[in-house]
Amino acid sequence: MSDLIQPDRGQAATTIHLVTKDGLEAWLKPRSAATRAAIAGQKFKGEAGAHAIIPAEGGDDYAVVAGVAGTNLDSWALARLAETLPGGTYRLAPADPACNVARALIGWALGQYRFDRYRKEAPTEGARILLTAQAKAIAPAIAEAGAITLVRDLVNTPAEDLGPGEIEHEVERLAKLHRATLRVTRGEALEREFPMVHMVGRAAGRSHAPRMIELEWGPADANFAHPRVAIVGKGVCFDSGGLDIKPSSAMLLMKKDMGGAAHAIALARLVMEAGLKVRLHLLIPAVENAVSGNAFRPGDVLRSRAGISVEIGNTDAEGRLILGDALTRASEGVEGVKPDLIIDFATLTGAARVALGPDLPALMTRQDATAQALIDGGIAQDDPVWRLPLHEAYRDYLKSDIADINNSPTSGFAGASVAGLFLDRFVGEGIDWAHFDTFAWRPAAKPGRPKGGDAMGLRAAWAMLQARYAG
After folding, report:
1. For residue range 210-240, what is the model confidence (pLDDT) as tens digits?
2. Superfamily assignment of 141-469 in CATH?
3. Where is each Cytosol aminopeptidase domain found (predicted)?
4. Start-to-end C-alpha separation, the chain
5. Among 228, 294, 446, 468, which one is most buried in terms of CB atoms within 10 A?
6. CA-closest candidate to residue 233, choices 327, 141, 133, 311
């Protein structure tokens, strides 16, 4: 996407005029009769997201007039234009000095996203290139658009082509690109060091064998003054439900159950590309929750890295199990230094979707200030999140008669929060921690956001990390 937004150096381009519905009449007054006729003929009223083609001033080429909600453009203000205009180069007409297009650049890029890995037909339109005078905003917009594209591509890829091994290869590629250290634990070592990851994934067999993937990185001037940040992502590449098997209708989207891993990898990429002043620890427990003769069973008691015994109430509540081992490892830190912050992403519960719908990730944190920083980051970047409680009284729902904890209570109440409380048991004492229960999927298209895999909570987390650690 790096060519879709370019600095304006006076290149030949088609002009885009931005108007609000209330400002359309004033904008039309000095225009030619041909322009007014074109506007009337296309029934353009200045509504946000609509546009019309008009004659260009002093030439044979056309121009575009597009409706926006206000002068402070949001991330998606230009996305529909990027989806629908003919291929070519465009520039925004000089506008109100208060008009800030920086956020809208990402929508221009993402409006041209296509997942075409399995399609034969070639695109019918060329690229739409936008020229902007706000040159400093280009690199951040392209970086974030690239990270979101990575999430979409990974989530959209079917499980046969994106198993634990392919997740490992994606992290390995990032490690090589940014000179990071990669550690992958498999086989007997996995069973010994990360027993819950091993138990959840062992039924998938050798072709999709489970593993724990860890990446460690620090900027070129890394030193012990830089705080450690751990990013954890649930990497269930396909979830059949295990022996508590899902109905076929519920399995249709389960290629997206590694959406948390996709978010974590994309956020780590943003951190490394920006050279953020942190020492990064990325952890991806990658498994397939399959059915076979050695699948773990309801009623089994699993060991964990933390030493907490877990009774299995439901094998379809497997994501919290693998995250438990990963969060324990993240809490231990590296070189004796514990993390200043842990962020995890997971497509964890249907309860979060019932409560908040597909657009809003559920956010749970130990500290109010961390929650507010993430909420503020989401508002600033048009990536809203909603906080749910880690209500102390609900810990009773996790009690087991024979083990330290149960992975799936039978009450049916507060499912998202109870899952968050389960994870909280595996995060080290006193460590700042944020948990995103995200859908990672868009069931209906919106401008710049096609139906399919999508990043939800990624930009909110990135905005918070930049605000917290950029200095």
Report:
1. 999 999 999 766 566 799 999 999 999 999 9
2. Zn peptidases (3.40.630.10)
3. 314-321
4. 28
5. 228
6. 327
